């Protein structure tokens, strides 16, 4: 005969197991809905725009004739804007996260900074566009250029990179720091040789999330004056003479993939809708490629980490 207290414990265990099973089923169904929804939209774009995915589509400028229109200026503009975004946001965001987590002392000022950084991560993107219009376009005189767009999107993803960096650093066991300090390492040596390398997989996750958000943003770049129709390319970043680097492309006008898609979807002709579907398919592939590269780097970094 089972004692009363033991039978009560068994009932509690069975009830908790049922709850765990129900929650697991609910989570699986929610995940399945999200994945299937994305897959359905992705396949719909692929089927609708498959006929337009030809080499000419990638090497042609936009045109008033749907059959001759391409995404050359759009995908080149997206790549260059993302380059400026990464260069401006990633080093600054990682450095800020490292400072706040490893160097800054706990005080009212640091608490205020942390609250503001967290809140900035949820600010609507149009607000960043209006800020950039007044600061980068007019105050700094950068104009409606690739530089302005890249810095705008850099500001947009900066809070995400900072928060992700701090969370990645917090996940590192404290004994890593204590062991390094015990061997006589300075704070900078601990940060450089242990903290940053060990937290890099988590940092890369935050960076790729921010970049994936930035590549699909439309409101900020429209606000600062991105063109909806452009039939030229910026100057090449590679110059013909030493030091073989050209920065004139930063001042060039531009367009990006989401704006090109918006331009085509606003037209009533079916052929332009097909172009928009093809461009959307390419944009999703670009985002998936960034995620794949991040996952590959993260995997190899984690292989080398030994706690």
UniProtKB/TrEMBL annotation:
Pfam families: BPD_transp_1 (PF00528). CDD domains: TM_PBP2. It is a multi-pass membrane protein. It is found in: Cell inner membrane; Cell membrane. GO terms for cellular component: plasma membrane. GO terms for molecular function: phosphate transmembrane transporter activity. The chain crosses the membrane at residues 21-50, 70-100, 120-140, 146-165, 214-233, 276-297. Its main location: membrane. It comes from the Bacteria. InterPro entries: MetI-like (IPR000515), MetI-like_sf (IPR035906), Phosphate_PstA (IPR005672). Keywords: Cell membrane, Membrane, Transmembrane, Transmembrane helix, Transport. Residues 75-294 form the ABC transmembrane type-1 domain. GO terms for biological process: phosphate ion transmembrane transport. Belongs to the binding-protein-dependent transport system permease family. CysTW subfamily. This is Phosphate transport system permease protein PstA. It comes from Aromatoleum aromaticum (strain DSM 19018 / LMG 30748 / EbN1) (Azoarcus sp. (strain EbN1)).
